[in-house]
């Protein structure tokens, strides 16, 4: 890629940002900071914010030298502006949940460290020992925000306190054991115990001192919600229209669910009954963790073979995608973490067992197309290697949920179009995944903006749980976890279905405009090579795509 002033500014921003985020450095695979943690104090936060302000001001003054440069500038201005808005209003500082918080990032970073490196044990020891200071910094930041009248909801604080308590009971001792199986490194064990003590201490403070001061109301209100929705989607949405569209989508999906249900269990009286029967049907279940991992890994390999050279041209460098079991103590949903910048650490899918030994393969199939190939892995890994078009900032720093999650949900739909769910059990799994994303639009907007539910009452945790359990077919544990997630992460949950909507609309528009010139493979290639961006700019770029 031709070097420009814009790419130089953004790459410098990435380099300086890495120095201020050792966790981010490890996630990227950049060496040298693996023994440190981020400074979570107000001082550390302000250093990162000031870097963002300076970069944004500098890049606004530069003129792009070509189309790639223009897109890079537009993406950077939109992302950095959004990040500063969330920072300066304290939104990014006070909102945290079981999926996105310093607690989860600190726990997950150890899963990204290579166990086969000689210096790793020393780095892990120092990093574990630093958790106490990191949490002290975060605590002081929360206290500063509280002095300004800025609080998270009590529900999220108590949930995080519970997560911390869980981690205090052996989570970091398990980390130590991973890097020193013999268990004879006393310094490492002591550091692990200090980390667990820090978890216990912060948990107590959150539960006993901080939570009582926090908001009893879960919803953030329409004004705050619009800011978060804009951040997660990169689009200025009509919330009421999006909400009504979500209701219609859920109705369409539920109708198709009944069609699949009749093929499976003609005597079933409710969709919930169908899901419960599938969970115990030996045709659609997997027994044991080892067998599950085996199937997940075989599934990813088969997906690559099925799609490469047909709907996609998959670069040999990113054909490998790992599957692992998620550490205990997190949320109940599967997730993906991208490869290191040099690809030495592959992209990895994570499956939370939640203490189970029997797993419903019927609803895992669609999820793994979402998380691996052609979903997140193909999108994220393609971005990583796209050095011809994207600068280092775009490849490693930019993430827009509407684009990324929208693509992954589009990937599920694509596999449906390709006949991957002809078996009615797997079709039901796919439809439950689609139903969940439609339901998310309804309950996320509904709860935060105070809309009325189907019984005429304002959407709340219980009515949201009922919808997810009965019409999106989530089990009780997952449904409760999902509700907590939405309430603690306003606007993120809608990004999946909204993003898919933009993807499908772009595809259908291209088909109409290009006629016989339209190629599905070229469409996929172009979408992935654009790189992550907001959905409004994505729509504008796709509207002028020439088919090549």
Can you describe this structure?
The chain is mainly alpha-helical and 548 residues long. The chain has 3 domains: 5-226, no CATH class; 236-496, no CATH class; 506-543, no CATH class. Helix content is 63%, strand content 3%. It has 25 helices and 5 strands. It has helices at 5-19, 22-28, 42-60, 67-88, 91-94, 102-109, 120-129, 131-147, 154-167, 171-179, 186-210, 222-233, 239-264, 271-280, 289-307, 365-371, 376-385, 392-396, 401-417, 424-449, 461-470, 476-488, 495-514, 520-530, 535-543; strands spanning 285-287, 321-325, 335-337, 347-351, 358-360. Strands 2-4-3 form a 3-stranded mixed beta sheet. The protein has a two-stranded antiparallel ribbon with strand order 1-5. Helix 16 (365-371) packs across helix 19 and helix 19 crosses helix 23 (495-514). The chain is globular, with a radius of gyration of 23 Å. The model has no long low-confidence stretch (mean pLDDT 94).
List the helices and strands and how they pair.
Elements: H1 5-19, H2 22-28, H3 42-60, H4 67-88, H5 91-94, H6 102-109, H7 120-129, H8 131-147, H9 154-167, H10 171-179, H11 186-210, H12 222-233, H13 239-264, H14 271-280, E1 285-287, H15 289-307, E2 321-325, E3 335-337, E4 347-351, E5 358-360, H16 365-371, H17 376-385, H18 392-396, H19 401-417, H20 424-449, H21 461-470, H22 476-488, H23 495-514, H24 520-530, H25 535-543
Parallel strand pairs: 2-4
Antiparallel strand pairs: 1-5, 3-4
């Amino acid at each position: 890629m031709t070097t420009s002033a814009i790419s130089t500014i953004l790459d410098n921003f990435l380099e300086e940002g890495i120095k201020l985020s050792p966790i981010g450095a490890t996630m990227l695979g950049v060496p040298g900071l693996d023994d440190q943690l981020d400074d979570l104090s107000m001082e550390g936060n302000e250093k990162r914010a000031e870097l963002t302000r300076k970069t944004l001001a500098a890049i606004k003054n530069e003129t792009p030298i070509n189309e790639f440069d223009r897109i890079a500038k537009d993406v950077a201005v939109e992302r950095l502006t959004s990040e500063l808005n969330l920072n300066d209003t304290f939104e990014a500082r006070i909102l945290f949940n079981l999926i996105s918080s310093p607690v989860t990032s600190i726990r997950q970073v150890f899963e990204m460290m290579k166990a086969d490196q000689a210096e790793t044990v020393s780095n892990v020891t120092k990093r574990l020992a630093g958790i106490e200071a990191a949490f002290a910094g975060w605590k002081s930041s929360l206290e500063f925000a509280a002095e300004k009248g800025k609080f998270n909801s009590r529900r999220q604080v108590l949930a995080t306190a519970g997560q911390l308590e869980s981690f205090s009971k052996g989570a970091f001792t398990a980390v130590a054991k991973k890097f020193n199986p013999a268990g004879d490194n006393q310094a490492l064990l002591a550091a692990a115990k200090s980390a667990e003590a820090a978890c216990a201490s912060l948990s107590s403070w959150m539960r006993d001192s901080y939570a009582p001061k926090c908001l009893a109301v879960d919803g953030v209100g329409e004004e705050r919600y619009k800011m978060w929705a804009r951040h997660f989607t990169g689009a200025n949405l009509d919330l009421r229209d999006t909400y009504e569209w979500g209701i219609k989508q859920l109705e369409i999906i539920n109708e198709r669910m009944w069609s699949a249900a009749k093929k499976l269990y003609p005597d079933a009286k409710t969709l919930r009954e169908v899901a419960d029967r599938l969970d115990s049907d030996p045709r659609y279940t997997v027994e044991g963790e080892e067998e599950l991992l085996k199937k997940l890994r075989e599934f990813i390999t088969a997906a690559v073979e099925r799609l490469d050279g047909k709907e996609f041209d998959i670069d040999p460098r990113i054909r490998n995608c790992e599957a692992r079991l998620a550490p205990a103590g997190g949320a109940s949903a599967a997730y993906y973490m991208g490869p290191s910048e040099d690809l030495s650490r592959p992209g990895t899918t994570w499956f939370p067992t939640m203490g189970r030994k029997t797993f419903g393969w019927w609803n895992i199939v669609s999820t793994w197309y979402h998380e691996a190939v052609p979903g997140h892995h193909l999108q994220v890994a393609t971005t990583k290697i796209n050095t011809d078009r994207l600068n280092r900032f775009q490849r490693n720093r930019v993430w827009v949920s509407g684009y990324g999650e929208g693509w992954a949900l589009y990937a599920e739909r694509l596999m449906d179009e390709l006949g991957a769910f002809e078996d009615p059990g797997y079709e039901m799994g796919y439809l439950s995944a689609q139903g969940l994303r439609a339901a998310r639009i309804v309950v996320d907007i509904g709860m935060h903006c105070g809309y009325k539910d189907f019984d005429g009452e304002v959407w709340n945790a219980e009515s949201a749980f009922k919808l997810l359990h009965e019409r999106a077919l989530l089990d009780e544990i997952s449904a409760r976890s999902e509700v907590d997630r939405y309430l603690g992460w306003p606007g993120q949950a809608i990004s999946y279905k909204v993003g898919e909507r933009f993807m499908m609309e772009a595809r259908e528009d291209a088909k109409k405009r290009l006629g016989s010139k339209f190629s599905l493979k070229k469409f996929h290639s172009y979408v992935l090579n654009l790189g992550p961006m907001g959905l409004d700019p994505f729509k504008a770029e796709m509207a002028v795509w020439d088919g090549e």
